[in-house]
Amino acid sequence: QVQLMESGGGSVQSGGSLRLSCVASGSTYRRYCMGWFRQAPGKEREGVAVLNSDGSTTYTDSVKGRFTSSKDYAKNTLYLQMNSLKPEDTAMYYCAIAMTEGSGGYCYLLATEGGMDYWGKGTLVTISS
Question: Are 86 and 40 in contact (CB under 8 A)?
Answer without folding.
Answer: no
